[in-house]
TrEMBL record:
UniProt KW keywords: Disulfide bond, Signal
Family: Belongs to the peptidase A1 family.
Classification via Gene3D superfamilies: 2.60.40.1960, Acid Proteases
Protein name: Per a 2 allergen
Active site positions: 57, 239
Signal peptide positions on this chain: 1-20
BP GO annotations: proteolysis
Classification of source organism: Eukaryota, Metazoa, Ecdysozoa, Arthropoda, Hexapoda
Domain (Peptidase A1): residue spans on this chain: 41-345
A Pfam family the protein falls into: Asp
Keyword Disulfide bond included in the entry's annotation: yes
GO molecular function: aspartic-type endopeptidase activity
Amino acid sequence: MTFLIQSAFVALAAISAVLCDPVVVPLQKRAPVEEYINTQYVGPVQLGNQYFLCVFDTSSYTTVIPSASCVSGGCNCANVHKYYSNKPVSNNVASVPILGSGYANGSEAHDYIAVSTLNATNQGFLLADDISNDICSLGADCVIGLGRPKSGRAAFNLPTVMENFVNQDNIANSFSFHHGRYPDGQHRGVLVLGGPIPAYYRGDFTYVPLVDQDTWNFKVDSISVGNEVIATDQLAFVDSSKYVITGPAEEIKKINDRLGCTNKVIGSRTLCVFDCDKLDNVPSVTFTIGGVAFNISSTYQIQQNGDLCYSGFQYSAGKCFHFGDFFMDNYYGEFDGQNKRMGFAKSVEEL
Ligand SMILES: *[C@@H]1O[C@H](CO)[C@@H](O)[C@H](O)[C@H]1NC(C)=O
Ligand SMILES: *[C@@H]1O[C@H](CO)[C@@H](O)[C@H](O)[C@H]1NC(C)=O
Ligand SMILES: *[C@@H]1O[C@H](CO)[C@@H](O)[C@H](O)[C@H]1NC(C)=O
């Protein structure tokens, strides 16, 4: 009897636990630090009584902040803010991958974290005494890992920021990005924590299930350039640390061949280059996801630095496409942790 009353009470409590409204975090693009690397968006984060600009990264699992004593790698860059602590340094040390190809090594630390109006106590993070250069090429101080919780990939198995905000601030287990290019040439964006906001998209969401427990990967039915299907049954995820779209060498080559660019070594990189005067007939690329076509025009695919025009489709290791900024400029993506799915809707271009 007691048990019955208790479970009835628990059920009632669950129903009456109304979720808080979603919270908007303004994002900004930093000036490029290195030629040919466009910066990614960063947003303001308060950790303890200190302020940082962090990349909210769907490909990382850990919150990573450089420590005051860090002088190697990315910590050498001017303008990187470091976290000062008067607490003794923990003996727990780890090395984690960040931002796709980078790394951070350091020790476990805890403090409260405030992002927009959300505030969680005892957020665990990696206080880095060594961090790869990626952080300064992006013009950021730090990384907030938005990877799936309980993946086993976070340093010290720490709960993610999203997990703590869901548990402590009672927001929905969902976040989304709106990125936009504006007629004045500026890029502006927001991260929405706690569910999508209708003002940022038009029409309905197309939802696709996540393919595993640990990543935001989903299936892409097919990829077409113009009217020609060049690949079917691919894996992808929306990577908020990437400016371009990267993918497996074979498929990227097929896309770039049909777009009509030519590989050239420029500095330390190979870029697929276009003649900037002959961009009129570059076809659009369409990703079919959940049976719906998501197309991207050449205006977005072609990157331009001065008189250098090059393809935004680039190689990366592995079998998975990383959909970066120029996909997100067109489509508002919802990372729905509650229902283990991704949602996509046409982004509202201007706000
Ligand atoms: C940090 O981690 C990287 C990658 O795991 C490793 O190559 C490097 O030696 C480490 N640095 C230190 C100081 O432990
Ligand atoms: C966040 O909460 C901590 C207590 O855990 C408090 O000291 C701090 O002032 C709060 N910060 C903000 C920005 O709300
Ligand atoms: C994308 O598809 C829509 C609907 O078919 C069409 O109106 C639009 O022009 C297409 N955009 C590109 C860049 O092909």
